[in-house]
Amino acid sequence: MGLKCGIVGLPNVGKSTLFNALTSAKALAANYPFATKDPNIGVITVPDKRLDKLAELVQPKSVIPTAIEILDIAGLIKGASKGEGLGNQFLANIREVDAIVHVIRCFENPNVVHVDGEVDPVRDKEVIDMELLFKDLETVEKRLERVRKQAKSGKKEDQKALAVVEHVKEKLEQGVPARALELDDDERALVKDMFLLTAKPVLYVLNVDEDSVHEGNQYTQAFSQSVAGENAEIIWISAGIEADIAQLESQEERAEFLEAMGLEEPGVNKLIHASYHLLDLITYFTAGEKEVRAWTIRRGWKAPQAAGVIHTDFEKGFIRAEVIKYEDYIQYGSENAVKEAGKMSVEGKEYVVSDADVMHFRFNV
């Protein structure tokens, strides 16, 4: 499955600098609003030591990691929901993504002008939140006109739809994002159909200066306290450090730089781990002489669904899955050795895939 995240935030918070560092792309990073007029698109290869270890054992012709597609969406400003700046265009771009990566400025730099004159991460978040809420209210009000007409039919499902949309509208007016609503499966399906911006899960990336990358600072503390009730996913990284890392050519140079900075891993890894956790994603592998490959799926998916990310025919004609636990593959060193040890299982349509399973699918179309 393709995973797409959109980087959002006010102008001059470090979005494009971070995007360039994460994707090694060359988006325009300038000290003025709207340096990014169209959503730059980049791809982050997902690092996975388990994939590397499998490749060492199998020695395939190719190794294919999974990836995350990143959209660098231009800076929103107050009034974007009413078309201020290039707001309508930007808000439309957000509808395309699976999750929002909200970059918050948590550093002082007199050479980088803040759009509101001073650094205040809590206020900055509220500006973005309100613009997304206003846009969702506009969407919900249009839907409300339609469902009110449909509810006149007296049908039970139409009456329920009306109640759900009215409930969503009420909560949005109270400042509650759609993702925070407690809904049953049917209600959630109705909300999903409206493609609300505030229904999307959010990862807050606090952009700090180099000195604050380990412990944070007063801005990260204030921000973390402000979202304590959101059950939010928060990480902080330094876009400046990430930009320096991106310029280094070899893995050895990057490892030495990280060690010198006292960092265990680059910020891109933290962002990927947090995104997977936020969206409840896991990885399974396929391994053969032709290729060793990683595949991303939702936690809880059954074997036919997992097969479907390779090809829809695999899901339609699913017969069985041959499954090797990653730890067993590493312990025994090859597929044949695993089979001889009786550690490969044959699973049917109800098998729930586990993280790091090594799988081979049998299907008939």
Present the secondary structure layout:
Blueprint: E1 3-8, H1 15-23, E2 40-45, H2 49-58, E3 62-64, E4 67-72, H3 87-94, E5 99-105, H4 121-151, H5 156-173, H6 185-192, E6 202-207, H7 218-226, E7 233-237, H8 239-247, H9 251-261, H10 267-279, E8 281-287, E9 291-298, H11 303-308, H12 312-316, E10 318-324, H13 326-332, H14 335-340, E11 345-347, E12 358-363
Parallel strand pairs: 1-4, 1-5, 3-9, 5-6, 6-7
Antiparallel strand pairs: 2-4, 8-9, 10-11, 10-12
Structure overview:
- This protein has 365 residues and is of the alpha/beta class.
- Helices cover 41% and strands 19% of the residues.
- The protein has 14 helices and twelve strands.
- The protein has a six-stranded mixed sheet with strand order 2-4-1-5-6-7, with helices on both faces.
- A hairpin with a 3-residue loop joins β8 (281-287) and β9 (291-298).
- α1 runs parallel beside α8 (239-247).
- It is flat, with a radius of gyration of 23 Å.
- It starts with a strand and ends with a strand.
- Residues 25-37 have low confidence and may be disordered.
Provide the helix percentage: 40-55%
Strand content: 15-25%
What integer is the average pLDDT?
87
Major sheet strand order: 2-4-1-5-6-7
The largest pleated sheet is described as: 6 strands, mixed
